[in-house]
Amino acid sequence: MKNVIIFHGSGASPDDVWIPWLKNKLEEKGYLVSVPVLTADSPAPLDVWLPMALKEKYDQDTIIVGHSSGSPLILSVLEKLHVKVNKAILVAGFITTLRGYEEHTSILQSVYDWEKIKRNSKEFIFINSTNDPYECNDKQGRAMFDKLGGKLI
Known about the structure:
By secondary structure, the chain is of the alpha/beta class. It is built from five helices and six strands, in the order E-H-E-H-E-H-E-H-E-H-E. It has helices at about 20-30, 45-55, 70-80, 115-120, 140-150; strands at about 5, 30-35, 60-65, 85-90, 125, 150. Strands 2-1-3-4-5-6 form a six-stranded parallel β-sheet, with helices on both faces.
């Protein structure tokens, strides 16, 4: 069965921003959608969030969507999986320290195994704006795209 896992950002919840709308639209199209409550901790702690994220069901039909801190979480999940997922969509993601938001580096790994991450998803889509107020901008999207390929929006 087609399934989608949506990871919210730091200090957020499954009921924030566009996540409820997306969940509803995907369910209308027949997807099984999971939006785990990670924690409302801000900044997002990788050592807490990663074990929670790895409890989800991943297979070759899975699509993973991450918003803000949920995006680097996706990278860590893909590095740990033993299955190739269908698609990873990273929205307003980041992989470097955010100027003015340095505390949010607790969701980042110091080093990523980019080749393993790349092998564990058939497709990558990066959605970043040019004017993100938290520095999760087009430069961050480009940095991930340069490592993994895919589509940069």
